[in-house]
TrEMBL record, chains A, B:
Keyword set includes Hydrolase: yes
Cross-referenced InterPro entries: Kynureninase (IPR010111), PyrdxlP-dep_Trfase (IPR015424), PyrdxlP-dep_Trfase_major (IPR015421), PyrdxlP-dep_Trfase_small (IPR015422)
Entry-linked Gene3D superfamilies: Aspartate Aminotransferase, domain 1, Type I PLP-dependent aspartate aminotransferase-like (Major domain)
Enzyme class: hydrolase
Assembly with partners or alone: Homodimer.
General function of this protein: Catalyzes the cleavage of L-kynurenine (L-Kyn) and L-3-hydroxykynurenine (L-3OHKyn) into anthranilic acid (AA) and 3-hydroxyanthranilic acid (3-OHAA), respectively.
Alphabetized SUPFAM superfamilies for the sequence: PLP-dependent transferases (SSF53383)
Pathway membership: Cofactor biosynthesis; NAD(+) biosynthesis; quinolinate from L-kynurenine: step 2/3; Amino-acid degradation; L-kynurenine degradation; L-alanine and anthranilate from L-kynurenine: step 1/1
Catalytic activity line of the entry: 3-hydroxy-L-kynurenine + H2O = 3-hydroxyanthranilate + L-alanine + H(+); L-kynurenine + H2O = anthranilate + L-alanine + H(+)
EC number: 3.7.1.3
Co-factor requirement: pyridoxal 5'-phosphate
Pfam families membership: KYNU_C
Protein name (record): Kynureninase
């Protein structure tokens, strides 16, 4: 894949296997905001991990095949896609676990403050874990909509998504971070609906900590391990709660006390699921030499084509302005689950979010303009 | 595999691909206490997950391929191997994460007590996470050797391994549990070095919570997801800290507050790494119809053959009595790392634990009596 800052929609389609439609052909697969399609390179990497590594090298693979270094090596690869210089990202565990660890570690960076301020419309796991963290740490949990958040001198942590999981609205992470920093608070961003579909620029925005998922737009496979970012200037002070042995400065010394590894390595917890990790490793090849600004432009073009082909009566929940759009477009319908199933029968795969939203995910690497228009046409055909 | 309560050592060897020795043949692979060899059925299950499921079904796989139910379905499969009736085990996350959750949930079952009593020789991650949990919950961490532990009316939780990770000594989990219960404490057992190599009988012993790893004797692959057990009578009171969305009673309702799923499902956290999960699913076929008592007898026979072939001067750290032995035998040597490497060059794969232990793992499904004797002979040849 040559360096290409303006890829066309569907620019890497031949590098994917797409789910089948009921007629046996490729589906119009617009569920990449939930589970990305399979890159052929993910399958190849996984087969190599199974046949050349685990089977034939055995336990020596932790050194000889580089498994031990994978959480940080993969972290750097993901980091390059979210604007993080090397040495600030680890991959492993689920987004929920990473978030739990990040929220507590963030709170400990501001031990003199009492409030955890979180997006009221945050993805459920973010809200549930914020509640649990508040209970464990004694913080007060306060929620609000990201644009209206007003952190003050009592705010320890501001927890926000980069893109709203329901509406697809992209928040102004730079402005939110600036406001948080003005008040002396630390930002924990959830990039699950942003990583791989738009440029995030964590370093440039000054975001403190971030987590995100790799099975959506990064196409790592079902339940692919999550990532966590911590800005380098916080590393020395970082005091995470999940003090697993792999985050130890000398993991095989097996010393009495936990001594954090230097840098972001201290965010490693237990032994990571290496087969899932290496599938992700292969999946990321799709993004080699591709700039996320171009991917986002192609994704927005897909969304525009979809919106232009929708009947005017359809209520679109997602902002139409490019600057306020993430990777998916949500429309309001009467029976979201029923409509989702009906579209699937017509070969258009999307997902539904209660109570009444249908989400159309525009993953530019494998979705084409024809796909976007077909989806709008099939939705129109199903509307009363 | 027919039901067989007395399998011979190596009874399933043809169902595995063994790591290669330097001469290109199969290694004498005695590192199954660290990373199990690869069952052919694990590879087959993984390929099916990749080609028939993720690639072709896409996001609908969560329902159509049963991914959503996998943590509990796999939990029941693992549960059957550790003496747990169905509905008490989940699979997912790493052992470290499961342990963190289990320790806090256990402490919350005894809110009026102030002490977390943990094995002083526990695997490092267990010790490090106990320290973190004590800090978060305000419990006092007290450590001691399992046989000498004396829980009292102030003890909330007793945390012990079933088998010592260094010496291979098997602790009397039944006696430890009885003493803990007499004092009114809750037991959290780590079965990492027991699951798949000896019968644990969690239900019969009355163990309260347990965690364990599936990449050792259960052969799930590098970093295969861990499991957590909670005895059914604790389910309704169980109040876990990792309140991820998949442990919600109505995960797709996406309601405001976290309402725990009924039963052990509330221990689910985030989206599990499905490719690694399904590799484990396939790996477990090795144990279909095989009784763990028989597997342990075969493992002990392997250890006996190894011990009998060792020069008498070798210091064996593991107890020789069958009742006190887990799945591996540890011997003390001058330069454990150097000896481990020298054995590997001779085609015998073991592992070293600092400062001076070599561990020989006797995974009966694929290790033969010849392997055990070869290992002793090669070790003898390297000794001064």
């Amino acid at each position: 894949m040559p360096s290409n800052s303006s890829p066309e929609p569907g620019f890497a389609r031949d590098r994917f296997v797409l789910p089948r439609a009921p007629d046996g052909g490729d589906a119009v697969y617009l569920a990449g905001n939930s589970l990305g399609a399979q890159p052929r390179s993910a399958r190849a990497a996984l087969l190599s991990a199974v046949d050349d590594q685990w089977a034939r090298v055995g336990v020596a693979g932790w050194e000889e095949c580089g498994w031990w270094a994978t959480p940080q090596r993969l972290g750097d690869r993901v980091g390059a896609l979210v604007g993080a210089a090397p040495g600030q990202v680890v991959v492993g565990d689920s987004t929920s676990v990473q978030l739990f660890g990040a929220l507590i570690a963030a709170a400990r960076l501001r031990p003199d403050r009492g409030v955890l301020l979180s997006d009221a419309g945050h993805f459920p796991t973010d809200r549930y874990l914020a509640t649990s963290v508040a209970r464990l740490t004694g913080l007060e949990l306060v929620t609000g909509a990201p644009p209206a958040m007003a952190p003050d001198a009592g705010t320890a942590v501001v927890a926000v998504p980069a893109v709203d999981f329901r509406t697809g609205e992209r928040w102004d992470l730079g402005a939110i971070t600036a406001r948080a920093h003005e008040a002396g608070a630390v930002v924990v961003a959830d990039l699950s609906h942003a990583a791989g579909v738009l440029p995030v620029e964590l370093d440039a925005l000054g975001v403190d900590l971030a987590v995100g998922c790799t099975y959506k737009y990064l196409n790592g496979g079902p339940g692919a391990p999550a990532f966590a970012y911590v800005a380098a200037h916080h590393h020395d002070a970082l005091d995470p709660p999940l003090t697993g042995w792999t985050g130890h400065a000398d993991p095989f010394g097996m010393t009495e006390a936990w001594t954090p590894a230097p840098g972001v390595g201290r965010l490693r917890v237990g032994t990571p699921p290496m087969l899932s990790m290496l599938a992700l490793d292969g999946a990321l090849e799709v993004f080699d030499g591709v700039h996320l600004a171009g991917v986002h432009a192609a994704s927005l073009a897909l969304g525009d084509a979809f919106l232009a082909a929708l009947p005017p009566a359809v209520e679109v929940v997602t902002p139409r302005e490019h600057a306020r759009r993430g990777g998916h477009v949500a429309v309001r319908v009467r029976d979201a689950d029923g409509m989702c199933a009906a579209l699937a029968r017509r070969g258009v795969v999307v997902d539904a979010r209660p109570p009444d939203l249908l989400r159309f995910g525009f993953a530019a690497p494998y979705v084409t303009l024809d796909d976007a228009r077909t989806a709008a046409r099939e939705l129109a055909a199903l509307l009363p």
